[in-house]
Amino acid sequence: xxxxxxxxxxxxxxxxxxxxxxxxxxxxxxxxxxxxxxxxxxxxxxxxxxxxxxxxxxxxxxxxxxxxxxxxxxxxxxxxxxxxxxxxxxxxxxxxxxxxxxxxxxxxxxxxxxxxxxxxxxxxxxxxxxxxxxxxxxxxxxxxxxxxxxxxxxxxxxxxxxxxxxxxxxxxxxxxxxxxxxxxxxxxxxxxxxxxxxxxxxxxxxxxxxxxxxxxxxxxxxxxxxxxxxxxxxxxxxxxxxxxxxxxxxxxxxxxxxxxxxxxxxxxxxxxxxxxxxxxxxxxxxxxxxxxxxxxxxxxxxxxxxxxxxxxxxxxxxxxxxxxxxxxxxxxxxxxxxxxxxxxxxxxxxxxxxxxxxxxxxxxxxxxxxxxxxxxxxxxxxxxxxxxxxxxxxxxxxxxxxxxxxxxxxxxxxxxxxxxxxxxxxxxxxxxxxxxxxxxxxxxxxxxxxxxxxxxxxxxxxxxxxxxxxxxxxxxxxxxxxxxxxxxxxxxxxxxxxxxxxxxxxxxxxxxxxxxxxxxxxxxxxxxxxxxxxxxxxxxxxxxxxxxxxxxxxxxxxxxxxxxxxxxxxxxxxxxxxxxxxxxxxxxxxxxxxxxxxxxxxxxxxxxxxxxxxxxxxxxxxxxxxxxxxxxxxxxxxxxxxxxxxxx
Length: 648
Fold this sequence. Notes:
This protein is of the alpha+beta class. It is built from 29 helices and 17 strands.
């Protein structure tokens, strides 16, 4: 729920106008009410754009504690809050609201910075402590809720979305190094694409005083060592424990004072959430599914079968390239990042439909692949690890067996992974994770399109080595098995930087997404599973699949994973999206983008209609990265420059 804003000045007073302007810019996140609070000294300001979900009557923010020495604004949800409220009251606290958000104030009163271990959920918060004269900004463990900050002219700005910072007067300028890092791989967890604008990383908090700013970590994955001793348990015991943790996480996230909906695809993840949630409601659940005309990407019939199986009302949202073309600019404005597929626009449009249907909260299956090793690259890494030291004959036998269960691969592609690696990962892990090799291969064509100046500036810059430098190799990777090492690298890059920007797309129309499969209590169960419970006889997400089996259709239980992707944008050359791509990448806006050589882009665009299908599919990622860059240039960088020119 909601959007939050904070400003903290060392000297000059903060104006109410600046806080209000930033808060209003987040009205899509909180359409019900926008409120601000300024300290008596005018050195601290908090803003809150509210989406009313819990405590519709008394839950307005900012919220103060009993003596008004603490003030807080919260975006997101704290679970199991009613039990905590009762305990706080027993210990003498006086609660001003029935809101889950208020528990943060009183837990902080009792425990100081140790209060974070008691918070469970998807959240970002900012708390001002008048006594200690410090501002605390916290982001949840996985980074489901966004939180950005910058310092300009002695003022710290914090907000749920970067557009609020820009609305407050922060200029939007490209960060060239971060852009290069993200274009060729993925940006670091503490960076954004804009100069001087940073993220509070997942599982971290920002602590600001008059003496400066500190970023500190309060949570990490802590996978067990590969040789850690543990009592042997049966498969049934593991599955029972996972099922209990799943059920508890899903049930907890259904608590709301407004209608709750469900994202539903044809996969195990969202079907598990819907199927297990149906046990806790007597009225029909509301399931929403996107469909595409390209049957290779459409899962609507499988989703329809699941909805009927659990007795849910099924709502189909058909989308095509015209829908994508009409809404991609607004979707990128909300997402504030570049993208490789139109699935983000599909999520934006689904949020629009949910809002019109009166749905304020939606549960999704996001995060299951990250916890349970659902991506095909995890299986490939497990295979490659098992080939080490084998004879050629044994390798071929294992390869053949793998290919029988994974038809999307062939001997040639497998061999390419055996022969293709990156030194920085080989030196650190002893191998290069397969998913990183895939990203490397897909992004390499972009180098040919870079402008000479930009390419020369970063000719010696290795985005993969820079990524490795940021990893806690000794504390989090050393001594772990290969599958969990791969999951950790993924969760420190793609998960927060590509998958979890879905929050900004859901919240674009005031719909809060809850992710029961990204629950840290569930994760603490899953991280201790043996690898055989994650990938078993070539079946991915084995423990999840078996735990959810009683609630799934046989179709879903037996289906391999299919990522939620929209059809490639340039697969057909006679649609509105193709024309939009052609027009924008040939436009004056493209001249303003400092990263690409326009004549090389035009050459690629001219060749596109003459490419075969596989070539166009390969070019699609490249074109969308450039298209979404153009949109950010126009919507943020150029708009910011024009605004500054008008002021001067």
